[in-house]
Amino acid sequence: MRSAPTRRPPGAARSGALALVAGLSATALLGLGATPASAAEGDVAIDVYSINDFHGRLETTSSTAGAAVISGAFQQAKAENPNSTLISAGDNIGASTFTSLSQQDEPTLDALNAMGVSVSTLGNHEFDQGRDDVDGRVVPASDFPYISANLYEKGTKEHAYAAYDVQDIDGVRVAFVGATTEALPSS
After folding, report:
1. How would CATH label the architecture of 14-29+45-177?
2. Cα–Cα distance for residue pair 118/45, rounded to 1 Å
3. What average pLDDT does this structure show over 10-30?
4. Rounded to two decimals, what is the model's pTM?
């Protein structure tokens, strides 16, 4: 997915510009062969690439790209535009392939870190082994934050996880807001 160049307001400091990406896209990694649009001087072209429902699919098969292919495609895109970021809409693990599941998803978490995922929303499958597993194993093993604006501590209005993550991409502040499916069990 390609984003439009972000124009800084006249006289505004670079850090003053804020681009808001409202939610992590539920699309697969797309547009890697696209030609970037010309940007006016002072504009910053930011490319946001997204994966979702990865489910520990490390190997390339006839129906899935696999970690190495996704990583290679993203690295190529980042070489073309250093202001590219890779995000995940969740379900990185859980309902995983045997290779990942049999090793408690460690290879998947390592692969996502190596790919350069910068932020991920929490999918329902991240919770397949319970919240203690997410907090005690998944989050600490990840080099990127997990976010969700609609998960709360039970019986409160306090967010269980950060609702959003703000990143500086070439002087432009970009906010990523996560949302988790309402189908997540509440027990």
Report:
1. 4-Layer Sandwich (3.60)
2. 17
3. 34
4. 0.76
